[in-house]
Amino acid sequence: MTETPDFVGPEASTGSADTVETSTRSASVMGDAAPEAQPPHPEPAEGQPVETVMERPHPATPIIKGWMALVGLVFVMGRDVLENLDNRGEAFSVRNLGFVGGALGLYVLVTGIFGFFSWRFTRFVIDDRQVRIEHNFIQHNSDKVPFTKIQSVDVVQPFAARLLGLAQLRIDVGSGAGKTIEYLGRARAYQMRDYLISRAHGQQVTVQESVARRATSNALHDLAADERVLLRVPVQRLVLAAVLSSGFLVTLVLSLLTLGGLTWFRQFGGMVGLIPLVTGLFGIISRDVVKQWNYSLVRSGQALKVSRGMTSLVSQTLPTNRIQGLQIVQHQAWRPFGLYRVKMDVLGYGSGDADEGASDILLPAGTWPEVELAIDAVWPGFRLADIELHGVDRKVRKLHPFIWKSYRWGRNDDVMVATNGGFVLETKIVHHARVQSVHLMAGPIQRRMGLADVKLDTTAGLLSTCHLFELDEQLARRLVLEEMDICRESRRRDAERTALDALPAPVVGVRVEN
């Protein structure tokens, strides 16, 4: 078992809190928007040959795009045939089989012709300044992505594509929908990902020079010669974390209670009601185990890379300058085992796993040393234990008798930290340079007790708010006023560090004397 740090969760027992969240007054102090640091992109030297890459997607692309629709069609038609068999007592006749076979054959023929011409008139072009994805079948469309706008490039291998050794590239441009190249051979997708990231960081390299970096390229791992694995999460820990999660435990208890009640009253016909609950249990396992299978966090140049997935393998690139904040989560059931989950708020990414290529999980299940390692990978040199956390006044106990000790906050010149929670303990960390606005909030009961809340907003996202609960009103006002000066100074230092990182490395000369 692992000793749990005091600042992650409350020391008292948890329970339901009698909270008052009415907010009738909100004072907002807006700060300067944190500028996004753009990677340098030098112009090609005069006379330097410009490499232009022009390719079509893999010829098997139409098969991958159409197989799900084909499976759905077979399922619908098969269900209709079985329903007719049950209702009319008819056997499978040659006519029925001929109708089904003809419909499937016609579908395969039409989609095959359409897919072939769609593939034939689709290509992507990479020149000295941008990526161009051209679709010239029926409707002409050309998507252009300048290298200076590329934030990250992810390699996603859905199950069907993975079976055929194919993958797709998802190019994140920071806002709006990203651009997708579907599908390339697995090795070629890795090569083009590395090449585009190098060009996005201003490196004048050729495709062949980028290919030389890659050491392995297979269906299980994505690791280049100059990349370093920071940590891996074993599958046993993923299973343990999923089984001990609050969602799994609640669903399991409901399933057992339902099963016990039906058995007690001998209502065996109601067992069908267990199907949604059992499906929910498998859904949690799929989300927390299958999608995070073979998880690894890798240092890849100036960025981080996350590889994960059992059936669908995802290689997600994480530019650290786009990570707005982090959240450390610990369920009470995890605490005896010393397990934590680290989530992140990445500018331009969606939350959760709605998009296979963009997950908000930095560490699905790890020990405290692994949490510190993951945080250090995002903000080198930062240690959460070095920040002194302050509690709230004992009068807050009247409002939150069970969880008032979990309300803590602290800060240094770089980040603001806030902890809270009952059954689920949360620690949010927001970088001052990413704060967009600061709010002072107080409800009627809070004003009567001389209390107020402070909220620090970054970009819109799951972890977009760092909430400091139930502070003394005078302290809250002082924090709001001081925070804007701290944010401004933090952005200045961040811009200086970005400019310094953009400078070319010094050339070390060697003088030979005879």
UniProtKB/TrEMBL annotation:
Membrane spanning residue stretches: 62-78, 98-119, 238-258, 264-285
Domain YdbS-like PH: 119-196, 404-461
Biased composition regions of type Polar residues, renumbered to the chain: 13-27
This protein's UniProt keywords: Membrane, Transmembrane, Transmembrane helix
Pfam family, one: bPH_2
Source organism superkingdom: Bacteria
Name by which UniProt lists this protein: Putative membrane protein
UniProt organism field: Luteococcus japonicus
